[in-house]
Amino acid sequence: MCRRWTPCRPVLESPIDLHDRSSSTRFFWAASPGQIYPELKRLESDGLLTRSEEPHGGRARNIYSVTEPGERALREWLTESSDAMFEMRNEALLKVFFADVLTTEQQIEVVRAMRAQHEAILDGIRQGTPAYRADRQFGYISRLYGLGLLGWVVEWCKQLEGDLAAGRMPLGFEGDDAVAARTR
Residue 128: in which H helix or E strand, if any? Predict the structure, then answer.
């Protein structure tokens, strides 16, 4: 029952803007509105959420609130001891993975495009990060994680671009996988 919470970001006090995910959960949970809306409807039918409509321009906007049973289910899911699922889908990194078939210039462009994409996501998180609030500290902490992770990816791309352009062994690879995981 608790796994059902994972496709949506449960927020007890504030609504989720599903159209502005660049500043919310998109950097760590890539669920589309096509996945989230059916899940919200199912949670509502299970009595874990309630829905109200709020005028928003020419259309009504659905606002979901967590019910007492929903809050209990959320707390249960948050404190369960099972291993959390880890999934990473990064098409830009997949292109890097297969870039051996390209020329050096094309490889640099693939890495440059990956850097630009991650810089844009990083800017979205920066712009969407609200001031710290004690009652929402873990939303803020999660955004700090995104800033750190994506900042690392941007620096990794810069280093790789420079190494490829200079004809150096990428990222100082010395035969040990641990070396490839760090930047100089």
Answer: helix 104-128
